[in-house]
């Protein structure tokens, strides 16, 4: 007699699965930049990668690259005038679910200048949801003051009312002087050509008051209040403990030249500091893993903010995460993701309406090359809990590409986004070393289950067994294995299922052995 066991799927965050997982751009082939500034986003049909030196679009169903060009060509094609003595850097790209448009940003800079010169924000919007089609771009001074400052490390956010840019401002002597923040009505950007005439610049803001590296939120869902801006109270690069975040709100963003900025709210949090540079298998400790800034996009889902930044725990780089009430500007929950062996750095975060969260990052140790990882979390009764770290892509070597004879630059950030067509699918872009002096980007789809795990049923027909499950469970696959041990493999049942009423059914002959069956998605 055959022994049958039916296995049901665990909750979404417990069994994350890897879907598409492919290499994007590679240093020396697609880009000559160090670091890459790995950034990208998923849309209805594509994943778009925008990194230093390269713009690429991938079909998300196959992972194939369907369009690519230099970042310089991307901006000139969008209508931005760039002279030959200029280059562009610090890319950000997002898909806005409210308008079904893509938004991209960078800054320009003067090649070979001995001192920092005033530069411009570059902003482009797609004509529709197809990123391979027409884009319309604009450029404007980051600082209009005489002897204007230079905007570094620009950030990008969006909500129903506007598009928002911020920059870390430096004077011509490379000294930090504050932050800038710009609010642009979205209505003007939807025009052809796009208009930025109604933008509001809040000038150079105090770091001590507004925080360090302002991140306007990428907003989705039903937000009941205007755009949120979040920053770390300190970069932590003094390696001392710091205990604050700073939150602000941009109001009246849809009104031409009428946006206002709320007073800053200080949030007290558990102490954090910048991590020391991690150790690689070759024994080196010169890989730049950044500081405690919020380097990746802040996500606002409804009225909840999700953010991550680097910190240090027991002399290892770790990840601090936050859930914040965007309305009251108060901390809901926070925690720290650590690993007993790995340094974890350059994290990014995304969340869906159900409170399912993915944090993705790099990690390495004295025995593990820099690799990409992720951890999934789910919210139960209002409390967010994370599972175990899991590997996305293994690095191939210890990375040594010195830009100043001392430091191997990495990062400066990564990106993780929710698929707008399926909230249980997350996409992340991370870096990994493809060789000892070659970085590459890895684009990974993470599948955190389906909303309802279907019931798998068994019946008998003579000498055959009949396995069935609801026809509403589209995309699930039937798998079987003969032993329930860690070394036993699940094998997909290749016999086609048939529709019988409201059930998919598969009929199999009985063998004189035990068997275990399950449904998996996809």
Overview of the structural elements:
With 522 residues, the chain is mainly β. The chain has two domains: 4-9 and 453-520, Immunoglobulin-like, CATH 2.60.40; 17-447, YVTN repeat-like/Quinoprotein amine dehydrogenase (Methylamine Dehydrogenase, Chain H, 7 Propeller), CATH 2.130.10. Helices cover 3% and strands 50% of the residues. The chain is built from three helices and 39 strands. A hairpin with a 2-residue loop joins strand 4 (46-51) and strand 5. The longest helix has 7 residues, at 71-77. It starts with a strand and ends with a strand. 47% of the residues are buried. Mean pLDDT is 93; it is low at 1-14.
**Regarding CATH, which class of the largest domain?**
Mainly Beta
Q: How far is it from the N-terminal to the C-terminal residue, by CA?
A: 31 Å
CATH architecture of the largest domain: 7 Propeller
Query: Spans of 5+ residues with little confidence (pLDDT < 50)?
Result: 1-14
Radius of gyration: 24 Å
Helix amount: under 10%
**How many β-strand runs?**
39
Structural class: mainly beta
Tell me the overall shape. globular
β-sheet strand percentage: over 45%
- What value does the average pLDDT take? 93
Task: Please count the helical segments.
Answer: 3
């Amino acid at each position: 007699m055959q022994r049958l066991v039916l296995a049901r799927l665990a909750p979404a965050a417990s069994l994350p699965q890897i879907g598409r997982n492919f290499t994007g751009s590679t240093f020396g082939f697609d880009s000559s930049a160090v670091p890459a500034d790995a950034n990208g986003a998923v849309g209805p049909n594509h994943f778009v990668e925008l990194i230093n030196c390269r713009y690429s679009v991938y079909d998300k169903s196959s992972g194939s690259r369907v369009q690519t060009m230099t970042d310089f060509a991307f901006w000139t094609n969008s209508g931005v005038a760039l002279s030959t003595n200029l280059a562009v850097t610090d890319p950000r790209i997002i898909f806005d679910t409210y308008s079904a448009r893509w938004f991209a940003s960078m800054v320009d800079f003067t090649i070979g200048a001995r001192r920092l010169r005033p530069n411009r924000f570059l902003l482009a919007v797609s004509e529709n949801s197809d990123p391979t089609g027409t884009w319309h771009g604009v450029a404007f001074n980051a600082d209009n003051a005489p002897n204007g400052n230079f905007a570094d490390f620009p950030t990008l956010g969006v909500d129903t009312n506007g598009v928002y840019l911020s920059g870390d401002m430096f004077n011509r002597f490379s000294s930090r002087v504050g932050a800038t923040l710009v609010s642009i009505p979205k209505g003007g950007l939807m025009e052809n050509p796009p208009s930025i005439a109604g933008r509001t610049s809040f000038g150079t803001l105090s770091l001590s008051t507004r925080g360090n590296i302002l991140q306007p939120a990428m907003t989705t869902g039903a937000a009941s209040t205007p755009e949120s801006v979040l920053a770390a109270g300190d970069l932590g690069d003094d390696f001392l403990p710091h205990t604050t975040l700073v939150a602000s709100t941009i109001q009246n963003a849809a009104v031409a030249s009428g946006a206002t900025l709320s007073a800053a709210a200080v949030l007290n949090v558990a102490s954090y500091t910048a991590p020391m540079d991690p150790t690689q298998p070759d024994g080196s400790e010169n890989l730049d893993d950044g500081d405690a800034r919020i380097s990746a996009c802040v996500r606002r889902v409804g009225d909840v903010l999700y953010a991550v930044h680097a910190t240090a725990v027991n002399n290892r780089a770790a990840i601090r995460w936050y859930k914040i009430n965007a309305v009251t500007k108060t901390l809901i929950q926070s925690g720290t993701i650590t690993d007993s062996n790995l340094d974890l750095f350059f994290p990014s975060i995304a969340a869906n309406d159900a409170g399912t969260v993915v944090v993705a990052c790099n990690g390495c140790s004295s025995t593990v090359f820099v690799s990409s990882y992720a951890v999934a979390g789910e919210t139960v009764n209002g409390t967010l809990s994370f599972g175990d770290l899991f590997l996305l892509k293994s690095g191939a070597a210890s990375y040594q590409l010195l830009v100043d004879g001392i430091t191997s630059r990495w990062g400066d950030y990564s990106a993780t986004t929710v698929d707008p067509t399926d909230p249980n699918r997350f996409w992340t872009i991370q870096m990994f070393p493809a060789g000892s002096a070659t970085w590459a980007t890895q684009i990974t789809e993470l599948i955190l289950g389906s909303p309802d795990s279907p019931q798998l049923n068994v019946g008998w027909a003579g000498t055959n067994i009949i396995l069935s499950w609801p026809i509403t469970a589209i995309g699930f696959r039937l798998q079987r294995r003969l032993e329930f041990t860690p070394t036993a493999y699940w094998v997909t049942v290749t016999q086609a299922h048939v529709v019988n009423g409201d059930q998919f059914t598969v009929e199999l002959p009985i063998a004189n052995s035990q068997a275990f069956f399950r449904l998996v998605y996809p």
